[in-house]
Amino acid sequence: MLSQSVFIVLLNLVSNSVYAAERAEAVGTIREGKLLHGFNAHSFLSKNKNVQLVSPEEFQFSTKEIADLINDLAGWVHEKWNRPILVGDMSLKSGGKMASHKAHQNGLDVDVGYLSILEKHSGHRSQKFHNKFPEIFDDSGKLSSNFDKANNFQIFKFLVEHSDIKMILVSCGVKKAFVSDESLSKAERAKIRSKLLVKPGHEDHFHIRISCPKGNTKCDDSIPDFMWQDVNCKI
Ligand SMILES: [Zn+2]
């Protein structure tokens, strides 16, 4: 029989090698990144009945950290409002440029559908291969009445309180509505606002980017100054 100490050493060796071989790691920057040992978030999140995946497996690899965040967010949304969240593009298995995205290169990004008041099950992107979000909520800065302001802003609050969020990309109408909304406290709004950036293309979903996970030493999560401003949106 193995002595207890030999057994523990063996167990550590096995678990360390599994860990080293499998832990996904973000490398590089927002516009030039890679993903090592990409984590299959599609497979992981498909086990969560509160997640509706709207992109194929090949577009849903990531770090474990952002997959865990989405898993937690889905559980929280389900508990609060008994509804699923829509999850779109993340990264390719080895990262790098993906489809028409500028980011989504190193496993730190994910697209998530806004919550609507009345749910739609298919819509303007139904013919698309990926990021098949069903509804546009923003028409040139004017927000649709089906956009669930209070609950979407609660989601932003959950995200900034629950994780190390680098930024959340939204549409102009969403940011305008957020700035004038008073359902959250002043301090909560200030914290969220410092992460909210307007970029065209976020009329049917928002984009979450997290900071580099601890230990990802080749990851650079800085946002260049030229990107750190709202586009085509005066608030
Ligand atoms: Zn995105």
List how many beta strands DSSP finds.
Answer: 12
Task: Give the terminus-to-terminus CA distance.
Answer: 71 Å
What is the CATH fold-level name? Muramoyl-pentapeptide Carboxypeptidase, domain 2
- Hetero compounds: zinc ion
Largest sheet: number of strands, sense, barrel closure = 4 strands, mixed
CATH class: Alpha Beta
Query: Outline, from the CA principal axes?
Result: globular
Give the helix/strand class.
alpha+beta
Q: Give the helix level as a range of percent.
A: 25-40%
Radius of gyration, in angstroms, nearest whole number: 19 Å
Question: Element order, helices and strands?
Answer: HEEEHEEHEEEEHEHHEE
Number of helices: 6
Oligomeric assembly: single chain
Total number of domains:
1
Low-confidence stretches: none
Q: β content, as a range?
A: 15-25%
The average pLDDT score comes to 92
Q: What is the compact description of this entry?
A:
The protein is an alpha+beta fold and 235 residues long.
Question: Key terms for this structure?
Answer:
alpha+beta, 6 helices, binds zinc ion, 235 residues, Muramoyl-pentapeptide Carboxypeptidase, domain 2, globular, 4-stranded mixed sheet, 18% strand, two-stranded antiparallel sheet, single chain
Chain-wise SSE layout:
Elements: H1 4-22, E1 25-28, E2 33-36, E3 39-40, H2 41-46, E4 51-53, E5 61-62, H3 64-81, E6 85-87, E7 109-113, E8 138-139, E9 142-143, H4 149-162, E10 165-170, H5 172-180, H6 186-193, E11 196-198, E12 205-210
